[in-house]
Amino acid sequence: MPELPEVETVARGLRAHIVGETLQEVLILHPTLIVKQDREHFRRQLEGATFEQVGRRAKFLLFSLGSRGVLLGHLRMTGKFIVSDPLPEPGKHHRVWLTLESGKLLIFEDMRCFGTLEWFPEVSRIPQLQALGPEPFSAEFNRAHLEGQLAHRRREIKPALLDQRLVAGIGNIYASEILFRIGVHPTRAADQLRTAELGALVQATQQVLTEAVLKNGTSISDFRRVDDKTGEFQNFLQVYDRTGQPCRQCGTSIERLVQQQRSTFYCPKCQR
DNA sequence: AGCGGAACCTGTCGGC
DNA sequence: TGCCGACAGGTTCCGC
Predict the structure, then answer these.
(1) Catalytic residue among A12, A143, A262, A269
(2) Segment (H or E) for A109
(3) Which nt is closest to the CA of A191, judged by C1'?
(4) pLDDT for A220
(5) Angstrom distance (rounded) from CA A45 to CA A39
(6) N or C: which end of chain A has fewer CB within 10 A?
(7) Distance between CA A200 and CA A131 in Å, rounded?
């Protein structure tokens, strides 16, 4: 479901609701996967802790608990965080209930059970964050970085963009959108992009992601904000999920292909 | 070392 | 109507 803009939207939404709140009770409603560690340990670490900040790294949510460590969350495909008033009983796909001292309920819901929650003593000890590439808006994400990383890489550029070690936060929707903006065909070998195209790739990545964050992300089917509203960027997609529809630039039919088991959308005329 | 494929799990949709 | 396969915004592990 969510890529950088959607996760950023969730982080901002949560921040407004839960910073300063103390966790009163942790209720795990699903037996597997979601909470990746021992449930009693997880519960003990969280109960009584206070949310000091909600941040994002790549597509991970980081709930800082001050001296009580950090809660790492990942929405994967269908995960959602919802801030709610108390409920009489859990919804069908509710996986974890976190009761806050104010009486509000922080719900982690996930139909497909791919999402994860995990507690760590400190951010520096989170293995999942170790190999991540630079954030798209950081100074380290620049043309030289791409040149260095992509030299002699024969894999196709679109799957390369999904590799979180190259740059963190791009997912399947925005990878297609970014390549459309720079007129690069998704099957081009990563090491065959010209220097100017790599510069354009940096720019387009930052532009697309910035616009998507401003529109509160993309809601194709599942994604919802913390307040259950949809994002709006789906109204501005140029190629994603537009197979057979006319390219907004040249009128040619948008095409779909599969790369590494994921759909890619592109304009065969605008992208070479 | 780098890359592709399978696996994780549930639901929806289109074709027959 | 029912069944079956394809597909869904992600990451991780396992081979080659």
Answers:
(1) A262
(2) strand A105-110
(3) B2
(4) 85
(5) 10
(6) C
(7) 25
